[in-house]
Design a protein that fits this description.
This protein has 186 residues and is α/β, with parallel strands linked by helices. The chain is 37% helix and 15% strand. Strand 3, helix 3 and strand 4 form a beta-alpha-beta unit.
């Protein structure tokens, strides 16, 4: 394994103290050495509108540049109405355009879905994977990560207090690091 890989971390919840953000922080904390996760902010991206490609908004250009420079992408998403939040879908759309210049193409990826409910955001997890096919993003298939009952996994300070979840997340990140190495084109 190379000494260092940079991973864009996209968090599909805008709330500062969302449980998805807490899980994302826990993922950063348990990532193996050499795997550097860097949150790429998506909340300020203007809605995708092809007409804006004539004078690309600065936020789009900065986002595309940051993602393009990364070796892989990790998506952390809550489930909204059995799908991904609009802000995350917008980020995917912004990065995929203009056609033929997608920043996603060939980047290994994985998705962690989070929910206070028992099915752990299964709908969002599966729905976002449909986009990965078109985007030419090799998605890690196993292990899958559906973090259910997530609100009870953290203390009032936002610290992960469930040891079995911490162990699972560490194994997940180790598997993701190996996936990046197996599938990264360069």
């Amino acid at each position: 394994m190379p000494s260092s890989r940079n991973v864009a971390l996209l968090i599909g919840s805008l709330r500062k103290e969302s449980i998805t953000r807490k899980v994302a922080r826990a993922l950063v904390a348990v990532a193996p050495g050499g795997l550097h996760l860097d949150e790429v902010e998506i909340g300020a991206l203007p809605h995708y509108n092809q007409d804006l490609e004539a004078a690309v908004p600065d936020a789009w250009a900065a986002f595309r540049s940051r993602v393009q420079a990364m070796d892989a992408v990790l998506f952390a998403t809550p489930e909204y109405n059995r799908s991904v939040p609009g802000v995350l879908k917008n980020a995917i759309d912004v990065g995929s355009r203009p056609y033929g210049k997608s920043v996603w193409s060939g980047k290994p990826c994985a998705v962690v879905s989070v929910s206070p409910g028992v099915i752990g955001g299964f709908g969002a997890n599966q729905h976002i994977r449909q986009s990965f096919v078109f985007l030419d993003m090799p998605a890690m298939q196993q292990p899958e990560a559906y973090i259910g009952g997530a609100a009870a996994l953290f203390d009032d300070a936002g610290t992960l207090i469930n040891d079995s979840t911490r162990e699972f997340l560490a194994k997940y990140m180790t598997a993701f690091a190996a996936w990046i190495e197996r599938t990264r084109k360069s």
